[in-house]
Amino acid sequence: MEIIIQPDPAAASRLAARVIARLVRARPDAVLGLATGSTPLLLYRELIRLHQAGELDFRHVRTFNLDEYIGLAPDHPQSYHSFMWVNLFSHINIDPQNIRIPDGLASDIPAFCERYEDQIRAVGGIDLQVLGIGTDGHVGFNEPTSSLTSRTRIKTLTEQTRRDNARFFGSEANVPHHVITMGVGTVMDARECLLLAFGPAKAAAIAAAVEGPLSAMNPASMLQMHRVVKVFLDEPAATSLQRAAYYRWVYENKPEWQRL
Q: Which among 47, 55, 126, 239 could bridge 33 via Cys, Cβ 3.0 to 4.6 Å?
């Protein structure tokens, strides 16, 4: 696990975009796992900028999104279908046939979840998974106490997550109670993970995920067991890390070939 602390979200997001750009240039048909919410917005804007500058081609890229609210139609303004098209897909040259997002209106949710896992396996797995982290340590919508080997499935949102997301829906009462989410085990199968976290509200969850024990109470802590994880933080999100000075020292003293 590599911890990269930057002055602000924009600087951290630019570095994360370089990792994705490097992968897509090396493998034009790369499989990306994508996240939603406010955290990856600057990352997606930087990917759009690179594409519009003629520096990044998404024609053959395949994508799988982490999650979706159950009960929201794809055209609902707060669905993650809408989020992805508004904030990324409509601005790049990705083939719509290569986009996969969980179906919140699936009539048979367990069967849909099995098919989603099959689709990921059929393309050879996810090359790089983009992740955010909740204030309680959830990744995707794998809430605390989620199985650390879980696969794509239905989850019930905690009261805290519904409160955190109420700002997108106008009130907590409008936030759905249930979601489809990739499982922790599905995330761990990705060949590389990028975790982004910004702001002081994420500091405690990041400290527990990076420096705390492996625990289903902080599902993101499972990333300690992953072979290749880069954690991009701004300064406020790093304030609870005991080893922050060491992480900065490591990043500043990388050999040239490892630099971003």
A: 126
